[in-house]
Amino acid sequence: MRPDQHRQADDAAKSASRLKVGFVLARSFTLSAFALFVDTLRLASDEQDRSGRVLADWQVIGSTRHLITASCGVQVAPTSDFVDPSKFNYIVVVGGLLTVENPVDQETIAFLKQADAKKVPLIGVCTGSFILAAAGLMKRHDSCVSWLHYKEFRERFPDLSVRSDRLFNLDRQRGSCAGGSSSADMAALLVRKYISRDAERNALEVLQIERARAAADVQPRRPLYDNYDDARVKAAMITMEQFVDGSMSIEKLASTVGLSRRQLERIFIDKTGMSPAKAYNRVRMERAKSILAQSKAPLIEIALDVGFENASQFTRTFKRTFGQTPSQHRAASRAH
Questions:
Q1: pLDDT band (50, 70, 90) for residue 12
Q2: Residues of the chain with CATH 3.40.50.880
Q3: Which of 1, 8, 139, 246 is least surrounded by Cβ atoms within 10 Å, i.e. has the fewest?
Q4: Fold of the domain built from segment(s) 222-335
């Protein structure tokens, strides 16, 4: 084989081994989520900050070459038409504003279904998981969304599994993440898997990110009631907020953070000085207190929202917790 043929063969081998990602951008997509994901790939693909597509490649793919406007107003042009999805290791759907009625067109939905049929893993970034779920592509998979969008996901897709106490989720065929800086964390995981830890480290250092967070890391949000230094307690408290109607059993709550009920109770007593059941009740009462101060909703409506069958039972529990009745609290809040 001639030297030039050797070089061509080496180039072909390198190209075949590269991490290849296709990005689908929704109308009014979140620019930061896309930028952090793609820039992690860019910086991992070459040494220092040369931006060469040596170890990774990416395309913004779409049904047209029309500019796609992000929620902040910046426009991005697709770099490729829809091609055979099996050319990519992953198809990443970057969502954005949930108020947009049709975030992607039917050709895009058909392309995503084609990718699924060819076993190409699909990832929903930010609200991209909403797009995948609406297309029927999140069945039998967990969706990880921001705490900000958790309630709406449950309302739109009540039969699907969703959580917002983690940064991202990734299995063999699906991935989803809360968006924001967690986009870089998920991209870093792909870099580590397909390229190397050195490439991951280079990307994060240039991005001024100290370390890549793991999928199990808790979303950085201060819970409604309090904040604690144990990730399992934080995750459990966030889950309590999401099921503020009291419908989550302590056993199920423990299982969501990988513990038995007894282990969860022991950790709660140690870290918070109260049992999970008492903490759950306090979270519900804090939510009720917030609603009382911010709305004119009748007591029975608030009582039902936080899991009580009647207003009298709610009133007794509220007074036992805060030393005043709901009506007294509402009057005091308005006086201020």
A1: very low
A2: 19-207
A3: 1
A4: Arc Repressor Mutant, subunit A (1.10.10)
